[in-house]
Amino acid sequence: MARELPVKALLGDELTEDEFEEQFSNLYYYIDLSNEQVFLRYEERVSKETWEDWQNGIESNLNRPAFQMAWDEIKERSDTFQELRRLERNDFETDPADWDQIEPD
């Protein structure tokens, strides 16, 4: 999975419009994986230590320009990824294992 992501995006560089369009599906799949990781912690299927590593990675990547651009487009075009949306709304500071339920946007 990570090998499919553009190195420029991982380094925090902005992608050209053409590069972004070409890489959008890979960025989308990363965001889908991130949402799945939030859900796994919500279901308490991963340890707190694993979650903290994942959470740091998710937050770090979503703060990179290409990932943020893809995430913004996904949020605008769909109502999916409620778990990741909630984590973002909580500034990446809450543990999904402590959530009573996943709230729709």
SS strand fraction: under 5%
Largest sheet: none
Distance between the termini: 28 Å
Query: Into which percent range does the helicity of residues fall?
Result: 55-70%
- H/E topology pattern: HHHHH
Distinct helical segment count: 5
Assembly category:
single chain
DSSP E strands, number: 0
- Output the radius of gyration: 14 Å
Mean pLDDT figure: 94
Q: Would you tell me the structural class of the helices and strands?
A: mainly alpha
Shape summary: globular
Enumerate the spans where pLDDT stays under 50 for 5 or more consecutive residues: none
Structure summarized in a few sentences:
With 105 residues, the chain is an all-alpha fold. The chain has five helices and no strands.
What is this structure's SSE topology?
Layout: H1 7-10, H2 17-42, H3 48-62, H4 65-77, H5 82-89
Task: Describe the structure in your own words.
- The protein is mostly helical and 105 residues long.
- The chain has helices at 7-10, 17-42, 48-62, 65-77, 82-89.
- Helix 2 (17-42) runs antiparallel to helix 3 (48-62), helix 2 (17-42) crosses helix 4 and helix 2 crosses helix 5.
- The longest helix has 26 residues, at 17-42.
- It is globular, with a radius of gyration of 14 Å.
What attributes does this structure have?
single chain; 105 residues; mainly alpha; 5 helices; 0% strand; globular
